[in-house]
Amino acid sequence: MENNIQQEYNDLVKRRFEELDELKKMGIEPFAYEFDVNSDSEDIKNNFKDDEHRIVKIAGRIMAIRRMGKASFAHIQDHKGRIQIYLKKDELAEMYDAFKLMDIGDIIGVEGFVFKTKTGEISVHTQKLVLLAKGLRPIPIAKEVIDENGNKIIYDQFADKELRYRQRYVDLVVNPDVKDVFIKRSKIISTIREFLDSKGLLEVETPILQPLYGGAAARPFITHHNALDIDLYLRIADELYLKRLIVGGFNGVYEISKDFRNEGMDRSHNPEFTMLELYVPYKDYNWMMNFVEELFEYVCTKVFGTLKFTYDNLQIDFSRPWKRISMIEAIEEKTGVNVIKSDIETLTTVAKKLSIDVAGLNSKAKLIDEIFSAAVEGELIQPTFVLDYPVELSPLAKKHRTKEGVVERFEAYVVGKEICNAFSELNDPLDQRARFEEQVKMREAGDDEAHQIDEDFLRALEYGMPPTAGLGIGIDRLVMILTNQPSIRDVIFFPQMKPEVK
């Protein structure tokens, strides 16, 4: 293993292995078992008092070193930030010599008292030093230089996007803003949970491995269960199992889970993604629109302290009420065609005029979806509810109570991206069976994303499911927008990547 690492690198790695050997010869364990940390960089700086001789124990990664013979300064970085430490040879004795064998990237523990240097920097005067982990690979540290015109020039920045995604552990060390995005992500999710719990919804768990996949139009990942000798699917959605729980009598359930869709990848799609789904009995999609506005208001205000955001230089305001438009009317306004009344040939002609590749678009549902994406989506910058989708696009939603050819469904869009999807859920088992059978015809005609017939789900509906409102929110895309990140990969710790080429 050591040889493999050294072959990959240059003399810098060779030197680190030599330092490792020297440390071992000095009797110093280069990979410690523990260190009793009692403070962090933020706490030390925020609570400094000139007249207090405070003893602290802090640990972190060395990010800068300035050696001056019998004394040295260094900056270490912990989970809260950076702080300077001061080391003197006559106080640390052998460990000062050991410090000469330590590099940027090594993790150390320091015990000492807090003081302020002559330049006013709060620091830790090291009285005890412990090596916790010797770094065998150098971390990329950006160097800042101010040119003669006062401009800041940064060299050796760890900026290659693909490398940052592959080596997120390095990205988090050297790019502090990245860590902040993921802290925000965690707070967004915990605040969503807080809001839903306060509304009396119960968080539940449903199967990831499913004998039938459903709840969305997508291609699944397939795996095999050896003991049962059957193929299973990684879920593409949680919907059908959560609805079974509504049949069982729960008064509102939600799940924040990983879903999987065997599809292409782009700036807003990853094959493994985080989804919130929730279902509330005795409600409809009109109620759910108000619920979504309230949820967003709560999360944005609590996590960010504002309802106004900037995404890719676009100004967004999540204040209530959001704009509401009809999908059918929006398409007709842009194309002059009523997609409900049009046949496949007419829709194909419209799609071609919009420069849509119609290969494989062999159903009205797919054509309408692509036409909407091309003609309307990009202009939906402010939060907007798009209402009343064609029946062909929504096999799990109730038909509209007053409008022919559409269902009671909405999707919310912001900055041209879909952020949630909701229905007045279909609870008529006879209508649901007919919709599933129509999906089977679409599958036989070549639509490999069409829904299967789930007989157990139909059986559940036959026992009776109350009128129900359902909602799905893509967490990754939501975090992208709220933290102003250009790609879904920027908000997923370890996004899916092609195998690394050696």
From TrEMBL:
Entry coiled-coil feature ranges: none
Catalytic activity, EC: 6.1.1.6
Alphabetical UniProt keywords: Aminoacyl-tRNA synthetase, ATP-binding, Cytoplasm, Ligase, Magnesium, Metal-binding, Nucleotide-binding, Protein biosynthesis
InterPro entries assigned to the protein according to its UniProt record, in alphabetical order: Aa-tRNA-synt_II, aa-tRNA-synth_II, aa-tRNA-synth_II/BPL/LPL, Lys-tRNA-ligase_II, Lys-tRNA-ligase_II_N, Lys-tRNA-synth_II_C, NA-bd_OB-fold, NA-bd_OB_tRNA
Pfam families for this protein: tRNA-synt_2, tRNA_anti-codon
GO cellular component: cytosol
UniProt binding sites for Mg(2+) 2: E418
Signal peptide: none
Cofactor(s) named in the record: Mg(2+)
Reactions the enzyme catalyzes: tRNA(Lys) + L-lysine + ATP = L-lysyl-tRNA(Lys) + AMP + diphosphate
GO biological process: lysyl-tRNA aminoacylation
Co-factor binding comment: Binds 3 Mg(2+) ions per subunit.
Domain of life: Bacteria
Annotated binding of Mg(2+) 1, by residue: E411, E418
UniProt cross-references to NCBIfam families, sorted A to Z: lysS_bact, PRK00484.1
Family to which the UniProt record says this protein belongs: Belongs to the class-II aminoacyl-tRNA synthetase family.
The protein's name in its UniProt record: Lysine--tRNA ligase
Organism, as annotated: Ignavibacterium album (strain DSM 19864 / JCM 16511 / NBRC 101810 / Mat9-16)
